[in-house]
Design goal:
Blueprint lengths: L3 H15 L2 E2 L2 E4 L6 H6 L3 E8 L2 E6 L4 E5 L5 E6 L10 E6 L3 E6 L3 E5 L24 H8 L9 H4 L11 H11 L12 H21 L6 H9 L4 H4 L18 E6 L2 E6 L9
Antiparallel strand pairs: 1-3, 2-7, 3-4, 4-5, 5-9, 6-8, 7-8, 10-11
Helix pairs in contact: 1-6, 3-6, 5-6
Amino acid sequence: MPEGPEIRRAADRLARVLAGRRIERLFFASPALKLWESRLQGRQLRAVDTLGKHMLCRFRDGTRIYSHNQLYGRWWVKPLGQTPDTGRQLRLALHTDRHSALLYSASDIDVIPASELLSHPRLRGLGPDPLDTDVDIATVVARLDSATFRGRQLASLLLDQGFMAGLGNYLRSEILFVAGIYPKTRPRDCDAAALMRLARAILTLTRRSYRTGGVTHSPSVFRRLRNAGMTRAEARFAAFSREGLPCYGCGTPVRRENMSGRRVYYCGNCQSPGGV
């Protein structure tokens, strides 16, 4: 499933061709949304926003088209009249006089009037988005140390969209590796320094992944690995999908376990179990 950085980059692509332009024609595959095709036709789309893994195409009057890519959804941007060569099913289309934004395969789509935005069931329980520049380290530390979250294992907590919106499986492994924390550790087991490392990693790696298109390694390490002959896929992560390969910190083989129903990767030496 695409994580917050991937959805934000997709939103950027849509915004470049949709923001500030009239939507001349719309298509919703869902019969329940068909009435909105004529209601939104001809309106100006102001912006394409995201909150975690959720995308919101915002019209001038505050109405939003909501979408979540789920596992298989994918957006394409094409010149008007062109479609991608794909066997996927078209679920949503927004057409200007020049371009089309086309969402395939995803079925979690809705239209949200401005007055219902804060109460919408997909959005009302979300935590802060690490890509929001107003979210700082103090904000994340406070959430980690709150009564709501401090007793949860981090392997589970970092996938909880009510904690931080947009984190997912690859970011979970990378954040814990960079912070040097064992996945089953709870925030209440961490000292102040460890909470700071964890909060900093949450913000730094999510924002770096957005800027780089999915690379969480530091730019200098990534360049060194690429210059040594690694492919982009091999060099992009410090821990995720590196089972059995040597840890970049100590050389110990990276481990893989299933935690909270998803695979997590960590170094048993650099991220040893126990209190932090």
